[in-house]
TrEMBL record:
Superkingdom of origin organism: Eukaryota
Region of interest called Disordered, as start-end residue ranges on this chain: 152-176
GO BP annotation list: actin filament organization; actin filament-based movement; endocytosis
Family matches, as InterPro entries: Kinesin_motor_dom_sf, Myosin_head_motor_dom-like, P-loop_NTPase
Lineage of origin: Eukaryota, Metazoa, Ecdysozoa, Arthropoda, Hexapoda
Residue ranges of every copy of the Myosin motor domain listed in the record: 38-176
A family per Pfam: Myosin_head
Keywords, ordered alphabetically: Actin-binding, ATP-binding, Motor protein, Myosin, Nucleotide-binding
One Gene Ontology cellular component annotation held by this UniProt entry: apical part of cell
Protein name from the UniProt record: GD13609
Family: Belongs to the TRAFAC class myosin-kinesin ATPase superfamily. Myosin family.
Amino acid sequence: MFIEIQSLIFAIMDTKDYIDFNSQLKMETGLHERDRAGVQDFVLLENYQSEEAFIGNLKKRFQEDLIYTYIGQVLISVNPYKQLPIYTDDHVKAYRNKHFYEMPPHIFAVTDNAFRSLIEENRGQCVLISGESGSGKTEASKKGAAVHCRLLRKSDDRRGRQGQAAEEQSRAGGLR
């Protein structure tokens, strides 16, 4: 099976039709599900230097519609070539203000972490998205940007002008 991969690098440093968010979260966090769903961070692989183990873990996760996997703070995404119900408002809320590894791997974890670092540390952030043609770079960018804009609006509502300043910094190139 050929799998195209896209990488999302956080710079501070598909098969079933439907899986609802709660069952997906349970699958990601339950130890007994590890053999079926793979590990959510390649650093946790027993044979972490094996290409076969790496690809095998990606296949397991792909077969369970778990398209995101970490390697430390790097997020690997496999294009499912279909719509998955993993970009809902419930997902956005679940990843909001959570520590990076507190939730299963997701583009929302990267986006929220970058946003919080921008606001709390007042430092520009960079999210690098790379991959081959058809690997899902555009979709990942759109999902990340949509969440980023939503977070900016909420921040603007709560923080007034500070949120506006962050949005202006983002537009000016502070967050890419």
